[in-house]
UniProtKB/TrEMBL annotation:
NCBIfam families: HTH_metalloreg. The gene is sdpR. Keywords: Plasmid. Residues 1-90 form the HTH arsR-type domain. This is Transcriptional repressor SdpR. GO terms for molecular function: DNA-binding transcription factor activity. InterPro entries: ArsR-like_HTH (IPR011991), HTH_ArsR_DNA-bd_dom (IPR001845), WH-like_DNA-bd_sf (IPR036388), WH_DNA-bd_sf (IPR036390). PROSITE patterns: HTH_ARSR_2. SUPFAM superfamilies: Winged helix' DNA-binding domain (SSF46785).
Amino acid sequence: MSDDKVFKALADPGRRMLLDRLCDRNGQTLGQLCESMGMKRQSVTQHLGLLEQANLISTVRRGREKLHFINPVPLYEVYERWIRKFEEGRLSLLHDLKHELERKKT
């Protein structure tokens, strides 16, 4: 899975909103997503297609309905690759600062 596809999918506020909607209530149909988004069916379909290409959502057929589910794995991979390493340094600095300030109080 390419990080580029994930970043491209996340670049659009409409797609991020779709992910938020699926996070709030996973397993929604296209119709349900259109209602909650206030977008036309065609626009939502295009956004869902890009999210699916980025592996951020998966779908399951249930009869005539197609249910959409969020897939958090690519987001976690982006977190591990791009965010976590920067976060660890800051947390370490904050930890050291806290202990230094506490030491100075006594």
